């Protein structure tokens, strides 16, 4: 052994049974020294041994929601290790990235090639976006040291009081599914927008401005993707209105009106106007849960918010919500 691993050779070294993920993906020789092989130490990169990951996953004590969150993070780390490998392996049709293949099959994806995601956006399929969406909300909550229940509690006690647009029954059902990571994508995107609009500016990660905030950018990017590639749904309209509210309150150029315009177009595609005309004379208590939610997220709400945005002097804005 060449001693580049910084290990005391006077004592026996522990060796892994298999090559580390980085050396395997780069088709380089691995000395299998634990906890990091010599090559990974020299290159100052992460060193992951598949055998150790399996042992870690099977240890007692990692129970409940925390273990499920950690499982998602671990899967995403494996993908990142492949995508950002300094010497990615050539695709010769022999043995593709095994951990990635297993992850992809669990999501119904055949023959994934995420290395191309950074080079060719056309390879970014809807199944991958679902993973990216979940990673975004979990990473954001972890980074903010927040919980989904804490974020939604703040939202329901503040923003929802003056801009009511969420069906409590439907919302609570999706919220109950979140710890098991089985909430719908539309709810997860809405939750990301709720976190964005309820987070104080001082809590955002360091950035040149809030327009460059990673939390804002990931929320807006994902919203735009789902607008362009998914079927319209009411949560998409709700998320867009919250993003527009954030853009207005934080004076992010003139993006709020554009975002609201997208929301109005989505509402038209969902035939909100038809629902409102159909039930205009009915008591809200007699409407279905979906129609009641539509009655909250109406064109009038979007128009009121748009009017407030267009008529308010941004130079006098203090960042507070309208009363």
Automatic annotation (TrEMBL):
One of its GO terms (molecular function) is DNA-binding transcription factor activity, RNA polymerase II-specific. Keywords: Metal-binding, Nucleus, Transcription, Transcription regulation. One of its GO terms (cellular component) is nucleus. The keyword Transcription applies. SUPFAM superfamilies: Zn2/Cys6 DNA-binding domain. The keyword Glycosyltransferase does not apply. CDD domains: fungal_TF_MHR (cd12148). This is Zn(2)-C6 fungal-type domain-containing protein. Residues 19-49 form the Zn(2)-C6 fungal-type domain. It holds the Pfam family Zn_clus. SMART domains: GAL4 (SM00066). InterPro entries: TF_fung, Zn2-C6_fun-type_DNA-bd_sf, Zn2Cys6_DnaBD. It comes from Karstenula rhodostoma CBS 690.94. It is found in: Nucleus. It comes from the Eukaryota.
